[in-house]
């Protein structure tokens, strides 16, 4: 093992020297693509098929596996060092964490990576990977990739006792620390895992998903059902704008963006009361739909065709009624 680590280190130096003097060429492209592919968890077969389909030539099998060996060792070293440092910074305190899953593709992903971040230090405390062919996922959940986040969260927090792998809860316990609050998305099955593993911790939804249910969705319903010409014009404006830019989303996306910027402004101003966020969002949103973009963080560039709604019209009144408690408007 020791010999192999030394060999890997020598190999790493050789590859780094080679990379430093690399001229742009097919060979350089092949090496860079190999590194990029590894960071996303792509296999030799997948990358090779991609190169062939794209007419980019041939990827050397031996080089790929040589690179992979170095890459894996280095990645594991960096992971171990940074998570150990993150755990040490959590020592003797209540820890407020955020968890989420990331998939390698948007549908039916092979890899699901669950990450836990310490919200006070913004450092990754722990990470776990569940693949589509995971034995437990296959046996208990019929290989459902939706369930891989749930299984991943359970393992990351609770560990895998059968394989003697401690989870984050245990790792923190050995440092006299414990999880006090978990913030995550709207996955109710994750709620079940949290209730079981961390019955005393606060279980929170992240702002983005919370907004989706409380503000974006009701507004979307309103704008979809209304006959108000002013609101219809606004919705049409956003649809066209998004289509022109070839982007998904519409009125709801605009709403989310404004909420997000209001949250960022609160954070920058050190405002922690939810009412501050409400006030900022409501004020910014209403000014925006009425055509005043002075509070929109400089991100709005609506142009002359923006169909601003009138402050004394029915559209304005129905939006105010929707976002109750709008005394700040
Ligand atoms: Zn605006």
Shape by Cα distribution: globular
Total number of distinct structural domains:
3
Order of helices and strands: HHHHEEEHHHEHEHHHHH
Helical residues, percent: 55-70%
Taking Cα atoms only, what radius of gyration do you get, to the nearest Å? 25 Å
Largest sheet: 5 strands, mixed
Strand content: 5-15%
Task: Give the number of helices.
Answer: 13
Q: What's the end-to-end separation, in Å?
A: 67 Å
The set of bound ligands, ions and cofactors reads: zinc ion
Q: Point out poorly predicted stretches.
A: 1-5, 325-329
Number of strands: 5
The structural class is alpha/beta
Mean pLDDT: 82
Biggest sheet strand order reads 3-2-1-4-5
Please explain how this structure is put together:
With 329 residues, the protein is α/β, with parallel strands linked by helices. The protein has 3 domains: 72 residues, no CATH class; 115 residues, 2-Layer Sandwich (Nucleotidyltransferase, domain 5), CATH 3.30.420; 116 residues, no CATH class. Helices cover 57% and strands 12% of the residues. The chain has 13 helices and 5 strands. The chain has a 5-stranded mixed β-sheet with strand order 3-2-1-4-5. A hairpin with a 7-residue loop joins strand 1 and strand 2. Helix 1 packs across helix 4 and helix 2 packs across helix 4. The N terminus and C terminus are likely disordered. Bound molecules: zinc ion (ZN). Zinc ion binds next to loops.
């Amino acid at each position: 093992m020791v010999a192999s680590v030394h060999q890997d280190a020598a190999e790493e130096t050789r590859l780094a020297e080679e990379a430093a003097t690399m001229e742009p060429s097919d060979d350089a492209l092949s090496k860079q693509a190999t590194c990029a592919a590894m960071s996303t968890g792509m296999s030799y077969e997948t990358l090779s098929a991609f190169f062939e389909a794209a007419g980019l030539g041939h990827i050397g099998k031996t080089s790929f596996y040589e690179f992979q060996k170095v890459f894996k060792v280095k990645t594991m070293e960096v992971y171990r060092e940074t998570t150990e440092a993150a755990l040490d910074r959590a020592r003797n305190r209540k820890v407020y964490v955020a968890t989420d899953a990331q998939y390698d593709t948007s549908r039916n992903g092979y890899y699901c990576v669950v990450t836990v971040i310490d919200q006070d230090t913004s450092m990754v405390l722990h990470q776990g990977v569940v693949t589509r062919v995971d034995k437990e996922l296959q046996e208990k959940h019929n290989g459902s990739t939706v369930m891989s986040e749930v299984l991943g969260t359970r393992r990351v927090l609770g560990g895998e006792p059968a394989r003697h792998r401690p989870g984050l809860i245990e790792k923190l316990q050995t440092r006299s620390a414990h999880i006090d609050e978990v913030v995550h998305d709207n996955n109710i099955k994750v709620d079940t895992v949290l209730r079981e593993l961390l019955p005393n911790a606060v279980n929170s939804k992240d702002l983005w998903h919370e907004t989706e249910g409380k503000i974006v969705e009701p507004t979307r319903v309103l704008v979809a059902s209304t006959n108000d010409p002013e609101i219809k014009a606004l919705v049409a404006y956003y649809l066209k704008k998004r289509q022109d830019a070839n982007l998904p989303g519409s009125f709801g996306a605009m709403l989310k963006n404004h909420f997000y910027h209001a949250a960022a402004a609160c954070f920058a101003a050190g405002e922690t009361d939810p009412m501050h966020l409400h006030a900022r969002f409501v004020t910014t949103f209403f000014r925006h739909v009425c055509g005043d973009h002075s509070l929109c963080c400089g991100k709005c560039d609506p142009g002359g065709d923006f169909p601003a709604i009138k402050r004394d019209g029915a559209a304005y009144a129905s939006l105010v009624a929707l976002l109750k408690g709008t005394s700040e408007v």
